[in-house]
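Weekly structure sync, notes
Attendees: PL (lead), two postdocs, one rotation student
Agenda item 3: pending single-chain targets
PL asked that the sequence for the first pending target be pasted directly into the notes so everyone works from the same version. It is reproduced below exactly as submitted, 207 residues in total.
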Amino acid sequence: TFTDFENGEQWRFDPYGRWGINEDFAIFGRVPIISNKPDSGDRETGIGDIALGLELLAYEDIFKYPWLIPHLEVTLGTGDEDKGLGEGDATFKVGLGAGTTTDIGETGKQSIDWAADVAYRTHDDRDNVFSGAASIVWNLNEKFALIAEIGVNDEKLPGAEDSDYPITMLGGMWYGITDALVARIHVGSVANSPEDAIIALEMDGTF
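Predicted structure, written out during the meeting:
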C-alpha cells in the first residue's frame, strides 16, 4: 500500500495469513513492514504493529447469506512509535460484521455483495476509537468485480475540530487470476486527515 501524506509518504507491505479451523471459526495474523519518508528527514523502515485475531461465523442462512461475523483483534505494539511505525502500545479491538448478497440480471450470473462492520478499539494511553465501514461489491462475473468502500472513525487527530472525523473513501476492483488466486486494487483518500491519497494492491491466495 502506498499512502501520500501532506508531509511525506509511506509504503506498507502487509503479509497476512488466515486459517479456517472449521466452517465457523478462523484465526488470522498480520506482520506489517512499513517504510516512512517525511519531506524533511530520513527514511525509517521496520516492522509495524503485529496483529493477531479470530473470527466466528455466528449466523449464516442456508443459502450462505445473510451472515453475521463477530471478530476480535489484538495488536502487540511492536512498531516504533517515534519512527511512525506503530502506535506505541498494545490495542484490543472487538467488532461485528454483517452482509448479504443480491442476485441481479436475467441470467443470475451477476450479484451485489453488501457488507457493513462496526468496531471498538481500546488504547492504554489515548482515547478509545469507534469505527464503522460499509462496502458494495458488484460481481460482474465469476472473475471480475467492482468495489466501493467508505469508513469513518471518531479518532481525534492533532489540529482537527471535534466534528472532523476521518472518512476513508475507496474504489477499486478484483480479478480472479485462478480459482485460488485473486488480485485486488483500491484507490482513494481520507477526508479530515493528513492522508491525501491511497493506492493499495492485494494478492489473496487460498490453499
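Discussion points:
- The mean pLDDT is 91.
- The first strand starts at residue 2 and ends at 5.
Action: rotation student to compare against the earlier draft before next sync.
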